[in-house]
């Protein structure tokens, strides 16, 4: 992913950012402490940028005394802020996970003001019990001599520069997708394993849904689905098939989303929920699950359930993973396909597998 996830931003007087020495203010006075947030799943960022516009709009009625002028939020202000720095906070929005997203369009141009506002803002967010802070550093506000941001990981920011002026830039773009998985787990009583999420949009409050999550870096889809179901519900499962996948765009900070819906066979039935993410989990009769207005009225989930039901009746067949090494790149990998009929060995057909 190409955004920096900051669990903590420490403001210091001197610059310790290595290459970021070349950043124009306001960032050259800021050190990002390496106290990184452990991110669950492959996504270092989340789709939570769909934030609710809210409170942290400050900076008005400044009784500043003058050293030099600077611009902020369209207002001409003074650069001496000692008398007001406690009151000056960065513009930010709440996200749906109890965090804040700083409005990067309204960052002050003065380094002193930025440093002070960041300090005050962090104190304010801490006091209010906020969790994750998202702070985007626009490339326009840096002096990188023509370099562009390519992507960022926890320990670095990768920059690129294309030298030949007469040739188009051929450097490959950053990764464009996040990969999610959902588990459809059905028991012998025709009950499906469902959860209620702790953090969700108001329209989804009370919805019983399939366990979903993101796969980790270098994790297989089949093991990621089993892990997510285990983490959220405590139920052990065996992977059976990818039943369908959805491709959606502009989901997380402009990145696309691949969502693999997987059929899993339950190996246990005792539910132990993950209190951090999940409000409740249970085995719910499939008929009741399907009757929920949000499922009934949602084209995707309605179709997913129809496909799963067709699969239960052996009228449909999903894709199962087959491990192989391709001579093309020499890497072990998983090829997902279905074996509908294998005359030599009918037991090979993944479409004959039962669910419980
Ligand atoms: N949740 C659904 O109802 C739903 C519906 C359709 C598709 N999907 C797919 O499921 C996959 C996973 O999506 P999801 O909705 O389970 O993921 P999500 O956005 O709920 O994130 C998973 C967990 O990560 C944590 N998290 C995410 N962003 C955070 C933030 N900004 N701050 C703090 N914590 C944060 C939360 O604990 C959250 O429960 C995706 O591919 C998505 O397209 C989900």
Automatic annotation (TrEMBL):
EC class of the enzyme, as a word: hydrolase
Cofactor list: Mg(2+)
This protein's UniProt keywords: Hydrolase, Magnesium, Metal-binding
Domain Nudix hydrolase: 176-306
Gene3D superfamilies for this protein: 3.40.630.30, Nucleoside Triphosphate Pyrophosphohydrolase
Catalytic activity as recorded in UniProt: NAD(+) + H2O = beta-nicotinamide D-ribonucleotide + AMP + 2 H(+); ADP-D-ribose + H2O = D-ribose 5-phosphate + AMP + 2 H(+); NADH + H2O = reduced beta-nicotinamide D-ribonucleotide + AMP + 2 H(+)
Keyword Metal-binding: yes
InterPro entries in the record: NUDIX_hydrolase-like_dom_sf (IPR015797), Nudix_hydrolase6-like (IPR003293), NUDIX_hydrolase_CS (IPR020084), NUDIX_hydrolase_dom (IPR000086), Pre-Nudix (IPR040618)
SUPFAM superfamilies, A to Z: Nudix
Enzyme Commission designation: 3.6.1.13, 3.6.1.22
UniProt keyword Magnesium present: yes
UniProt superkingdom: Eukaryota
PANTHER family associated with the record: FI03680P, NUDIX HYDROLASE RELATED
Function (record text): Mediates the hydrolysis of some nucleoside diphosphate derivatives, possibly using both NADH and ADP-ribose as substrates.
UniProt similarity note: Belongs to the Nudix hydrolase family.
Protein name (database record): Nudix hydrolase
Organism: Brassica napus (Rape)
Organism taxonomic ancestry: Eukaryota, Viridiplantae, Streptophyta, Embryophyta, Tracheophyta
């Amino acid at each position: 992913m190409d955004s920096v996830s900051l669990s903590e931003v420490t403001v210091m007087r001197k610059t310790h950012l290595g290459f970021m020495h070349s950043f124009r203010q306001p960032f050259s006075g800021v050190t990002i402490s390496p106290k990184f947030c452990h991110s669950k799943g492959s996504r270092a960022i989340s789709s939570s940028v769909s934030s609710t516009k809210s409170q942290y709009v400050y900076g008005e009625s400044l009784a500043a005394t003058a050293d030099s002028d600077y611009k902020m939020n369209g207002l001409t202000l003074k650069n001496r802020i000692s008398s007001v720095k406690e009151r000056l906070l960065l513009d930010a929005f709440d996200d749906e996970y109890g965090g804040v997203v700083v409005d990067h369009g309204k960052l002050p141009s003065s380094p002193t003001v930025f440093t002070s506002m960041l300090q005050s803002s962090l104190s304010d967010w801490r006091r209010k019990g906020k969790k994750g802070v998202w702070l985007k550093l626009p490339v326009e506000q840096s002096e990188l001599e023509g370099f562009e941001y390519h992507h960022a990981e926890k320990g670095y920011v990768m920059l690129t520069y294309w030298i030949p002026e007469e040739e188009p830039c051929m450097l490959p773009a950053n990764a464009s997708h996040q990969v999610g998985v959902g588990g459809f787990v059905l028991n012998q009583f025709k009950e499906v394993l469902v959860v209620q999420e702790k953090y969700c949009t108001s329209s989804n409050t009370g919805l019983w849904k399939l366990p979903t999550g993101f796969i980790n870096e270098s994790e297989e889809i089949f093991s990621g689905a089993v892990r997510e179901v285990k983490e959220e519900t405590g139920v052990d499962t065996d992977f059976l098939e990818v039943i369908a996948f959805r491709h959606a765009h502009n989901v997380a900070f402009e990145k696309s989303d691949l969502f693999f819906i997987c059929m899993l066979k339950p190996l246990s039935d005792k539910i132990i929920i993950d209190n951090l993410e999940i409000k409740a989990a249970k085995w719910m009769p499939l008929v009741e699950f399907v009757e929920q207005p949000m499922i009934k009225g949602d084209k995707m989930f309605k179709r997913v359930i129809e496909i799963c039901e067709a699969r239960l009746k052996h009228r449909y067949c999903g894709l199962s993973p087959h491990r192989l090494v391709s001579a093309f790149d020499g890497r072990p990998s998983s090829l997902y396909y279905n074996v509908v009929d294998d005359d030599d060995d009918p037991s090979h057909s993944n479409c004959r597998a039962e669910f419980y």
